[in-house]
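Technical note accompanying the year-one report. For the benefit of new consortium partners, we illustrate the data format agreed upon in the data management plan: each record pairs a sequence with a C-alpha cell string. No post-processing was applied to the example shown here.
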Amino acid sequence: MSPSNLSQSIIYTALKFFSEHIINNMASPSGASSGSSQLQNSGSESSLQQIMDQRKRKRMISNRESARRSRMRKQKHLDDLMGQVGQLKNESNHIVTNMNITTQLYLNAEAENSVLRARMAELTHRLQSLNEIINCLNSAGRCTELYETEDDQMINCDEFLNPWNLLYVNQPIMASADVFM
C-alpha cells in the first residue's frame, strides 16, 4: 500500500470512528432512536464520503497543477539550454572564423618573410661580393709598381684601375698596316 493510500485509509477510519462516536452520543440512552441513528449514520457516511471525494479531487487537481508547473519549469530550462547552445555555436563559429583569418594572415606573413629572407640572402651575397671587389681594388690601388703596356708605355697602377686616367683612352686609335693586307 502506498503512503498516500495508507494516510487516506487512516483518515477515513478516524473520521468514521469519530462520526459514529458523535452519532452514538447524540442518540438517546433509551435506544428508541436507533432507526434515526441508522439514518444519521448513513447520512454521515455519505457526507464523509463526499468530503473524502472532495479532498481526493482537490489533491488530484493540486497534483495536476504541480505536474503542469513542473513541465513548464522543465520546458523553460530546456529552452534556456537550447538558447545557450545557440549562443555557444555562434561564439564557436566566430572563434573559428577568427582562427581562419589569423591563420591566413600568419601564412601570408610567413610567405612574405620567406621572400624577404631570400632577398636578404641575395643582397648579403651581393654586398659581400662588392666588398671583395672594393677590397681587391683598394689593395691593387696601393701598388706602386709600374706595368709596361704593349705600346711600350709605362702606366701607374692607379691609372690602370681608374678608367678616367687611362693613357690609351685619350690617344687616337691607329691601325697597323698588317691589318689591311
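Partners are asked to follow this layout when depositing records. The radius of gyration is 60 Å.
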